[in-house]
Amino acid sequence: MENKKLMEFANKIRKDILTAVYSAKSGHPGGSLSAADIFTYLYFEEMNIDPQNPKKADRDRFVLSKGHTTPGYYAALANRGFFPTEDIKTFRHVGSYLQGHPDMKHTPGVDMSSGSLGQGISAAVGMAISAKLSNEDYKVYTLLGDGEIQEGQVWEAAMLAGHRHLDNLIVIIDNNGLQIDGDIAKVNSPYPIDKKFEAFNFHVINVDGHDFDALRNAFNEAKAVEGKPVAIIEKTVKGKGVSFMENNAGWHGKAPSESEYLEAMAELEKEGAL
Amino acid sequence: MSEIKKIATRESYGNALLELGKNHSEVVVLDADLAGATKTSIFMKEFPERHIDCGIAECNMMGVAAGLATTGKVPFASTFAMFAAGRAFEQIRNSIGYPHLNVKIGATHAGISVGEDGATHQCNEDIALMRTIPGMVIISPSDDIEAKAAVKAAYEYEGPVYLRFGRLATPVINENENYKFEIGKGIVLREGKDVAIFATGLEVYEALVAAKKLAADGIEAKVINIHTIKPIDKDLIIETAKECGKVVTVEEHSVVGGLGSAVCDILSENYPTSVLKIGINDVYGESGPATELIKKYNLDSNGIYNSIKNSYFK
Questions:
Q1: Does the predicted TM-score (pTM) go above 0.90?
Q2: Which residues of chain A have a CB within 8 Å of the CB of B73?
Q3: In angstroms, rounded to a whole number, what is the distance separating the alpha carbons of residues A57 and A80?
Q4: What is the Cα–Cα distance from B238 to B258, expressed in whole angstroms?
Q5: Between chains, do A133 and B60 touch, taking CB under 8 Å as contact?
C-alpha cells in the first residue's frame, strides 16, 4: 500500500482513538496515538490476516502486550473490517464487547487477552514456540510499551525467546519516553533498550515509529533474520497527532472534555486533508 | 498396613503425561527447572521436543502456556505449588483464567509433606488462591490411581485445570474394579451415620484410618473423598450433612480458603451444620521429615481421631 494511503488510515485511526476515549469518558489516548502508525502498518500492510475469517489457522498473530492502548487497537481492527467502526463508541461501556483491555473471547481479531503489563509477550513467545513445534510459518508480533519493560516478566520472556532462537517472533517497543509518573528515564530508566535486547540474543532494529518507509525497511529486515527473535524499537511521540497531547504524560490515561475533543478532531481533520 | 503400596502422586503425574504424550501429539509439557522433581522428566525422556524447560521463570511459563493453548496445543505447565499458585497467581488469573484457555497446571510439592525444605516451599494456600479464579477446575487426587485418572480427565476437559500433587510417597487406596473418576463427583469410601469426614489428597487415607479407630469406640464415620475441590460436589455434601449431622473436613492445606471453607460455603447457605475444619491452622510449616510434620500438625490418623473425639464425642 502507498504511504499516502497508510497515512489516511492512520489519520482515521487517530480520530477513532479520540472518539473511543471521548465516548467512554476514560481510556488511554497518549499511548494509542503514539502507536497509531504501527497499528496501521501491521494491520494494513504487514500481517497475513483475514477480517472475514479472524481465526484462520495460518494467520499471523498479534498480542497487544501494552493492553491499555485498546483505542488504537480497536480502531485498527474496525477500520480493517473486523467489526463495525460505529461500535467504537461503545468502548468501555457496560455490556460492550470492546472491553477496556483486550478480551480474546469476545472481540473478533483479538488473539490474546492482555493488559496486565508484562504478560502479553509471554503469550507471544508461547505462540511462536507452537509454530516452531508444528512447522507452521506464521509470524507472531507483539507490541510493548517502553514503561512496560520495567516488568521483570518481559525479560523472562525475552530470555526464553533468545534461547530458543524464535526467529518467527517480532517484539515491537513503542518508545514514546513517558509513563504515568513521567519521563521513563527519571522513573526507572530502561535505557539502553537496544543493548538490553541485544544481550538477550535479539536482532535489534531502531526505527522512527512515525515514518512508514522506515517501518517498511525495518519489517523487511526483521523477516529476513534467521536464528534470532527481533526487537524493533520505535522512537515515537506520545500523543502524536494532537498538538496539546504530544509529549505530555498527563494524557496517558485521561479522556478529553468536549471542547478538547472537538479541537483535537479539527486538528486531525486538517492534517488528514493535507 | 505396613505392606501397603506407596507412590507419590508427582510420580503418577509424570507417568500419566507419558501416556498422554504417546496418544496425543498436541500435548506439550512445560517446566521451570524442576523436571526431575515434578517428574515431567519421565515425559521429557520420550518426547524431548515437546518438553519446554522455561528455566526458573514461572510467571513467564504460565504466559507461554497460555500462548501455546491459543494455537491448539494442550500445555501442562509444571512446577511446585508455591511457584504455580503463589508466585504466578496473577499470570494464571489474567493470562489463563480470564480467557479460559485450555491450560493444565501440574502443581507438585503441595502442602507440608514437602518436608525438609520447610515453610518457604510448603504451599498451604494454593487451593484457596485457585478457588477464587472463575472457571478454574481444581483437582486434588488422593493416590496414584486417582492422580493418573485426574490427568487424563484434565486432558479431556476443555478449559483451565489446576492439579495438586504431593512429593511424599503415599498409600495406594483406589486400586479396585469399581473405581471411577469423574470431575466434580465425590466418592463415598466408607459408610457411617455418626459423623461425616470429607477429605482430600493424602488426607483421604489418613481419614480412613481415623474412621477405623473411631469405629473401635463405637462411632461410625462416613468417609468421602473430595478429589475435585472446584466444582465441588454440592449435592453430596448437603445430603451427607443431613444424614450425619456432624461434619469434619481434612486437608493438607490451610483451614483458610481450602476444602473446609468450600464445604462451609455450601452448608452455611443450604443446610447449616457444625463443621470441624482439620488442616493447617493459619500458621507456616517448618523443616522436618514429611511424616513427622504430618504428625506434628495433627494431620495423621491419630491427630484426626483425637480432633474428632475432642470436638464431637467428649
A1: yes
A2: 130, 133
A3: 19
A4: 18
A5: no
Question: Domain map of chain A by residue range?
Answer: 3-273
Fold classified for A3-273 = Rossmann fold (3.40.50)
Instruction: Determine the straight-line distance between the first and last CA of chain A, rounded to whole angstroms.
Output: 18
Chain B residue numbers touching A122 (CB-CB < 8 A): 59-64, 66-67, 91, 95
Active site residues of B: 58
User: Residue-wise over A119-158: b if at least 16 C-beta within 10 A, else e?
Assistant: bbbbbbbbbbbbbbbeeeebbbbbbbbbbbbbbebbbbbb
Distance from C-alpha of B145 to C-alpha of B142, rounded to nearest angstrom = 8
Cβ-defined contact of A126 to B69 (cutoff 8 Å): yes
Cell of A93: 461501556
Number of A to B CB contacts under 8 A, please give it: 105
Instruction: Tell me the C-alpha distance between B289 and A33, whole Å.
Output: 59
pLDDT digits (tens), chain B, 314 positions: 557 999 999 999 999 999 999 999 999 999 999 999 999 999 999 999 999 999 999 999 999 999 999 999 999 999 999 999 999 999 999 999 999 999 999 999 999 999 999 999 999 999 999 999 999 999 999 999 999 999 999 999 999 999 999 999 999 999 999 999 999 999 999 999 999 999 999 999 999 999 999 999 999 999 999 999 999 999 999 999 999 999 999 999 999 999 999 999 999 999 999 999 999 999 999 999 999 999 999 999 999 999 999 999 99
Query: Which cell is B9 given?
Result: 502422586
d(C-alpha B19, C-alpha B6), whole Å: 21
User: Based on the number of CB atoms within 10 Å of its own CB, is B168 exposed (0-12), middle (13-18) or buried (19 or more)?
Assistant: buried
Note whether B305 and B223 are within 8 A (CB): no
